[in-house]
Amino acid sequence: MTSSYRASAGIMLAPAVTLIGVFIVIPMLLTVWLSFQDWSTQTPFSSVRFVGIDNFREIFGPTSIGRDFKGALTNTAIYTALSVVLILPLSVLFGLLVYQRDIAGGTALRTVLFSTYMVPMIAVALVWSKLYAPTEGPINQMLGLIGAGPQPWLSSPSSALTSIVFLNVWQQVGYFTVLAIAGLTQIPGSLYEAATLDGASRAEQFRFITLPLLRRTLLFSAVIAIINAVQVFEPVALITQGGPVGSTNVLTYHIRRVGIERAQGGLGSAMAVMLMLALVVVVCALFAFVNRRDSE
Residue 296 pLDDT more than 70? Predict the structure, then answer.
């Protein structure tokens, strides 16, 4: 009985495992292998030459390749941190507004939030590029109505990356609001009723009931938000092309330029491996932090 059950389970899992292996595991292992090779993307794999850790030394070295990589890594870290810091509180806030049935407009807010996530990022990037336009852009025109001067949203190194972050938050917050609502539905209403009878205010209920019981949901949301943020590509490729002065040159876009446009496949693979390792370290550290707080 047990052997037949295992056989049937293996048969059912085989298609999914095969697809994961072909499209995820094999490309990942190939990227790791290429990171130790000197290889041009314009030549076949048979032309690779083993160079050890030279590619990693170069991307962290003092040359222009190293400076560009470290700049792209810094931009990616800033972009990811800002996105997560804005998305998580907003998702909880909007989730509470939608979940509370005694607040008017909850259905309309739910529809608006969900519809933004359904819009493809390419379309979002093109629309926001027009919104950010220096003269004819609606954002600067509205600022002019209140007496504020036009802002160089995408043309200034100090504001270009932040402008891309706002674009990402607008597009992603609806999805994370869904996750927040899912977490709120798992909190027993009896806890709030007991807290109300004990005289706890709404703020105290949120601090001592909602937030602690949403911790696992927020952890999952943070991990997904980090993974989504480090993969940013379309807004940079369509709007800024990494500029101005490299201020929006994130790692995914930089890896494409190095690995495809410059045909330096070994260096591009080494950069991709470092991005993957950085992502693994951050996610593991986040899990360790939350688990430690739970144990305390």
Answer: no
